[in-house]
Specification:
The complex is a heterodimer of chains A (about 325) and B (about 350).
Chain A (H helix, E strand, L loop, with lengths): L12 H15 L20 E8 L5 E2 L2 E2 H14 L3 E13 L4 H18 L2 E10 L7 E11 L14 E5 L5 H11 L15 H10 L5 E4 L4 H13 L2 E5 L7 H10 L12 E6 H12 L8 E7 L6 E4 L5 E3 L13
Parallel strand pairs in A: 4-5, 9-12
Antiparallel strand pairs in A: 1-6, 2-3, 4-6, 7-10, 7-11, 8-10, 9-11, 12-13
Helix pairs in contact in A: 1-3, 2-3, 2-5, 5-8
Chain B lengths: L9 H12 L6 E7 H9 L2 H4 L4 E8 L7 H11 L4 E5 L13 H6 L4 E3 L5 H8 L4 E8 L4 H13 L5 E7 L2 H9 L8 E4 L1 H7 L5 H7 L3 E3 L4 H16 L5 E3 L11 H10 E8 L3 E10 L8 H4 L15 H5 L23 H4 L4 H8 L2
Parallel strand pairs in B: 1-2, 1-7, 3-4, 3-5, 5-6, 7-8, 8-9
Antiparallel strand pairs in B: 10-11
Classes of the chains: A alpha+beta (about 325), B alpha/beta (about 350).
């Protein structure tokens, strides 16, 4: 079995071989193929969006995706929810000595497919190989540039009284999948990561209403973290309804067993949008026509209460605080 | 039938709440013993919707919260040993000792592994023959049988590098201590669902026989809790001191006899120190002579003096339900989930953590 060795990172023949046989083979495009030290980009723009993210995940391969898919979707989504059309990505790999070449190829191929799917080009990259034990398999960083659409002003400080909150589908799928695969709990059911590029969904939302106030993707920290950030930046109080939260049975069950709250579990293909009530139906309808929005639903609203808090109205008619997640998620004893 | 939806139904909840609203107007003090109940009560905002005369008091049923600080400090000392791997439930990671916590020790290089079941330690021991694996065996009757089974399995697999630092506790004796506390003036208990699955609802009959206090075993979903409260309030108003079981889908009258057998096989019942509460007679479990080869303290020839906890922290009174967390001067000031002083703020089932997270 062919593996990555330290010489693949030494800058010589083997490095070139790796670049040509793996990265160029899959990522090939007019800009990358020029092989300059930096990608030459011609962008006609008024406002650019620029972002970066690093990806470390265990296991590297999971139901619904792998680290490569995450690395492309994650950066594409950060651009998309800023109201930008994602155009170009760079990617940097840090690979552990001894990593299987076939696994690397699968990861790179997935990245190429996801890039194509979301309409972005991977235009520059870097590879480092480190001694065994210094990283866990492979880490990937991606950075991305996008062009912000004209007339669109999406900002997490823009949530306003009267906005309703829409999510595009079930929450907690990614985090629960990773946790269950990592620990092999033996839960049966259809747990699968929701990892997906959301840019075409966002396009479809902005097409029907370009005045959407806020869109955020709810990754680490889950919906709870995102709503708290928005409440804080926009200086508003948010109330969500427990019986409106879309959660898969499998996620609900596994979270219950382990003592986790799905509101705090990571997603990789979910966004929440703050839309004025008058336009909400229109946006919701458009979202439901998109494959990543078929289960889109309204989960709550911005209220007229003073302060910067997030509340959950519970199924029994009670009300409780949904605070910012703190520390690492630790499973309970019994 | 689905997994949990029926027990989170708004319609059932409304019906049960109506029954509660129409019940007795007398002041009623109910203690929920179990930390998972405390969390669920806050998570579903149940205190908001109860009639004003019903007061819920949170009890000492959080295994991390009642573990004395001296235990944590001893575990931290053990984790510093080069030849040791500490295996622990996640809840224990953040509990502050005098100088450090397991989370900090791990960052500093101690080999500390998070496990979901003591049985995970069998693989850990087999995979690391040159290391001594120490499992931090805390918890109530819910986790003690698994510790026993793991020790038996270790013996069956001739694993000689697996040890247990035990601080298992049993619930009924501490309830007896609470019932006799005049300050609390309890009218009834919401009894712990998980613990009862092991010991059975029969184990609480002493409450009605010796103390004329009723109790209801119930589960952790909102409908379970409201149903349990409804039964309990009805018992209290009829002066019926029975122990009822509203969690029949999980709990049998006599409990899980196999699990109890394993506990009896491996452990002796001993007096035990509860953080903030003090020594409670016959409320702890210790390996018996037949299993003492697994006792980490004996193997590493360690003895330690027990002490309670941090100065200023009112965990003790909180665990006994005498004050609520907002009455502790450290709450939300010096003591937060990021920087907990008392264990009630650390554990996902701790009363202070519940108040911090959910209290409006």
């Amino acid at each position: 079995m062919s593996t990555i060795t330290l010489s693949h990172g030494s800058g010589g023949t083997q490095t070139n071989q790796l670049i040509n046989d793996v990265f160029f083979k899959y990522f090939s495009n007019d800009i990358l193929n020029q092989m300059n030290d930096a990608a030459h980009l011609a962008i006609d723009f008024k406002k650019l969006a620029f972002t970066t993210d690093s990806f470390v995940v265990n296991p590297l391969f999971f139901k619904g995706g792998n680290i490569g898919k995450l690395a492309v979707c994650g950066t594409v989504n950060d651009l998309a929810v800023s109201g930008a059309k994602p155009l170009y990505l760079t990617c940097a790999f840090i690979i552990e000595e001894g990593f299987a070449m076939d696994d690397l190829k699968i990861i790179v191929k997935t990245m190429a497919e996801e890039a194509e799917n979301s309409g972005v080009k991977i235009v520059a990259g870097d590879t480092k190989v480190v001694e065994k034990g210094n990283v866990d398999g492979v880490y990937i960083n991606t950075s991305g540039i996008g062009v912000i659409y004209e007339n669109v002003n999406i900002n997490c400080a823009n949530a306003k009284l009267g906005d309703v909150i829409i999510v595009n589908g079930t929450i907690g799928d990614h985090g629960m999948t990773i946790l269950c695969e990592r620990n092999n709990f033996g839960f049966e059911g259809d747990l699968s990561s929701d990892c997906a590029s959301l840019n075409t969904l966002v396009d479809c939302m902005l097409e029907v209403y370009d005045g959407i106030h806020v869109i955020r993707d709810a990754t680490r920290g889950g919906i709870a973290a995102v709503l708290n950030e928005i409440s804080d930046f926009s200086n508003v109080t948010i109330a969500i309804e427990e019986n409106l939260l879309p959660i898969k049975e499998e996620v609900k069950g596994a979270a219950e067993m382990l003592g986790f709250d799905p509101l705090y579990i990571a997603n990789e293909g979910k966004l929440c949008a703050f839309v004025p009530e008058a336009q909400a139906e229109q946006v919701l309808f458009a979202m439901r026509t998109h494959p990543l929005g078929t289960n889109a639903s309204i989960i709550g609203r911005v209220t007229d209460e003073l302060g910067k808090k997030v509340y959950l109205n519970t199924v029994v008619g009670g009300k409780r605080l949904v605070d910012m997640p703190s520390g690492i998620l630790l499973p309970r004893i019994c | 039938m689905k997994f949990v939806d029926e027990f989170r139904s708004s319609d059932y909840s409304k019906l049960l709440l109506e029954t509660l609203q129409n019940s007795s107007r007398d002041k009623i003090n109910i203690m929920e013993v179990c930390g998972t109940h405390t969390m669920a009560i806050f998570r579903y905002g149940i205190r908001d919707v109860l009639p004003g005369n019903v007061k819920l008091i949170s009890g000492p049923g959080c295994p991390v919260c009642v573990t004395p600080q001296s235990y944590i400090d001893t575990a931290l000392d053990l984790s510093s040993r080069e030849d040791v791997i500490i295996a622990t439930f996640g809840d224990m990671m953040k509990v502050p000792g005098r100088k450090s916590s397991l989370l900090k020790k791990k960052a500093e290089g101690s080999d500390i592994r998070l496990v979901y079941s003591p049985m995970d330690c069998l693989t850990l021991a087999a995979d690391n023959p040159s290391k001594q694996i120490i499992f931090l065996a805390v918890g109530f009757e819910t986790t003690a049988p698994m510790t026993a089974v793991t020790a038996i399995e270790a013996r069956n697999n001739s694993l000689s590098n697996l040890f247990f630092f035990t601080a298992h506790k049993i619930v009924p004796p501490v309830m007896e201590a609470l019932v006799t506390d005049k300050e609390l003036n309890l009218d009834g208990f919401l009894l712990p669902g998980h613990v009862s699955a092991i010991i059975g609802s029969k184990a609480y009959e002493f409450l009605s026989e010796d103390f004329k206090i009723p109790g209801v075993v119930t589960g952790f979903e909102p409908v379970d809790i409201l149903q349990g409260l409804s039964t309990l309030i009805s018992l209290i108003s009829k002066k019926d001191y029975s122990i009822a079981n509203d969690y029949k889908r999980i709990v049998r009258t006599s409990g899980n006899s196999e699990a109890k057998e394993y506990m009896n096989k491996a452990f002796n019942v001993v007096d035990s120190n509860w953080r903030g509460i003090g020594k409670v007679p016959k409320s702890g479990l210790e390996f018996n002579r037949d299993f003492e080869e697994f006792d980490a303290l004996k193997h590493f020839e360690i003895s330690y003096e027990e002490y309670d906890g941090s100065s200023g922290c009112r965990c003790g009174e909180i665990l006994k339900g005498k004050i609520n967390p907002t009455q502790c001067p450290l709450f939300k000031q010096a003591c937060t989930p990021e920087n907990p002083i008392g264990s009630c703020m650390v554990s996902s089932e701790g009363t202070c953590a519940a108040y911090f997270r959910y209290y409006k």
